[in-house]
Amino acid sequence: MTIQLTTPLTTQLTRYPETPSQTGGPYVHIGLAPQQAGFEIFDNNFGNVMVQPDTLGERIRVEGRVFDGSGTLMRDVLIEVWQANAAGKYAHPADRQDKPLDPAFRGWGRTGADFDTGVFSFETIKPGQVVGANGQLQAPHICLILFARGINTGLHTRLYFGDEDLANATDPILNGIEWEVRRKTLLATREQRAGEVVYRFDIRIQDTPDGGKETVFFDV
Amino acid sequence: MSHILSIDGQSGPLGPFVQRDSEAHPPALTPGYKTSILRSPRNALIANLPTLSEMTAPVFQPQELGAKDNDLLTNFAKDGLPIGERIVVHGFVRDQFGQPVRNALVEVWQANASGRYRHKKDQYIGSMDPNFGGCGRVLTDANGHYVYRTVKPGPYPWRNRINEWRPAHIHYSISGDGWAQRLITQLYFEGDPLIPECPIIKTIPSESQIRSLIALLDKDHAKPMDSLTYRFDITLRGRNATWFEN
């Protein structure tokens, strides 16, 4: 039996379909990280150093790797991050929270994984807490998006901080993950390395043969 | 009462983005595009109520870009002009409700006229062009319009099945008003016979959505005795009005 649905004409008129996504491909660096592709072209390159000398907040390094379903490193992945400043405010006009902007912090960075080691990293600050839906406070987090050959639509995930147990326990997004065992795939582990604070965050696109669990990805 | 707002508007709250229509996009697992098999999640994506984290995005300033950043004919030229078909590509970036997306960062990258990329990892026999870099970027203006100049890229072979060829294409990255709008896609050229065969294009589930990635020859805007023009419009997710206080 066929069910006949009628589409109201107004819907057709008022809403255009979003342009479809396509993979970034293996040479995504040419456009988004040309120095890594192997040439100099722009005077101002966007990169993974998100702090300036007068940026407020605790300096941290975020470091990780991305694995495919065979456990192989994805060395051609491109990653962008978006986060609030140390006070928990985003540098964007839609953020109307009554909190100070930090003129020395944009909150955005971009990098490719290293072609040899597969490691990606960002030099940033630990973000403050931002309000969530329904007024609930979110735990400190960094939004990540992954683009690569084989990924048809950019994959969204979030990095949470493994040493923020209290805030994480009440975070509405983490708690929205029905399968408790999957929540820990979003926790970065804090390490101290030569006076530097490093948060390690490995991403698995699928479960890996060594027992690594697939990272949670979001439909944002 | 609140108003429908553009990003410049200061008169009320900026609402969340409408839900992404998954039917408008390729699924993650598309076995005809072989690399997707090991690079697609097996679990369903998890959906949440939108928060400020997804409703905001980086803001770019015009002075961050160089004067030649949107001119691929000259931004890497060393001792002459690149070889190939001179084209101008332009269009509008709008949201799903037809509102212009202002100050969006549009970044493009592409192969040269031979189908060869300036990238460490590209070993194709097609020749390099010493005067062509292959990337550019531009911010949309107050009407959501963008324009850049380049050479038309050539098709190139790749190893999916052994005799696989990409149609001529230009990669696009668009960063709009909100993290939820972040989009990477590819532009194809009207009339290219490789389009219907391409397994990457065929990841898109509907014919009409495939058509939306095909730039149309825009001869009216060609520059006589200089360059042809293609038109390519982009639609990002729409921002909802918030009729009542959050």
TrEMBL record, chain A:
Q: Which Pfam families match?
A: Dioxygenase_C
Q: Which InterPro entries match?
A: Intradiol_dOase_C, Intradiol_dOase_core, Intradiol_RC_Dioxygenase, Protocat_dOase_a
Q: Which GO terms describe its molecular function?
A: ferric iron binding; protocatechuate 3,4-dioxygenase activity
- SUPFAM superfamilies attached to this UniProt entry: Aromatic compound dioxygenase
Q: Which Gene3D superfamilies match?
A: Aromatic compound dioxygenase
Domain Intradiol ring-cleavage dioxygenases intervals = 62-90
Keyword Oxidoreductase found: yes
List the coiled-coil residues: none
Key words of the record: Dioxygenase, Oxidoreductase
* Family that this chain belongs to: Belongs to the intradiol ring-cleavage dioxygenase family.
Sorted alphabetically, which PANTHER family does this protein's record hold? Answer: DIOXYGENASE, PUTATIVE (AFU_ORTHOLOGUE AFUA_2G02910)-RELATED, PROTOCATECHUATE 3,4-DIOXYGENASE ALPHA CHAIN
Report what the protein is called.
Protocatechuate 3,4-dioxygenase alpha subunit
UniProtKB/TrEMBL annotation, chain B:
Domain (Intradiol ring-cleavage dioxygenases) ranges:
89-117
**What GO annotations for molecular function exist for this entry?**
ferric iron binding; protocatechuate 3,4-dioxygenase activity
Q: Does the keyword Oxidoreductase apply?
A: yes
List all membrane-crossing ranges. none
Q: What is this protein called?
A: Protocatechuate 3,4-dioxygenase beta subunit
Q: Give the signal sequence positions.
A: none
InterPro entries given in the database record:
Intradiol_dOase_C, Intradiol_dOase_core, Intradiol_RC_Dioxygenase, PCDO_beta_N, Protocat_dOase_b
Segments carrying the region annotation (Disordered) are: 1-33
Q: What is the lineage of its organism?
A: Bacteria, Pseudomonadati, Pseudomonadota, Betaproteobacteria, Burkholderiales
| Species assigned in the record | Aquabacterium commune
Query: A Pfam family in this protein?
Result: Dioxygenase_C
Family membership, please give it. Answer: Belongs to the intradiol ring-cleavage dioxygenase family.
Query: What keywords is this UniProt entry annotated with?
Result: Dioxygenase, Oxidoreductase
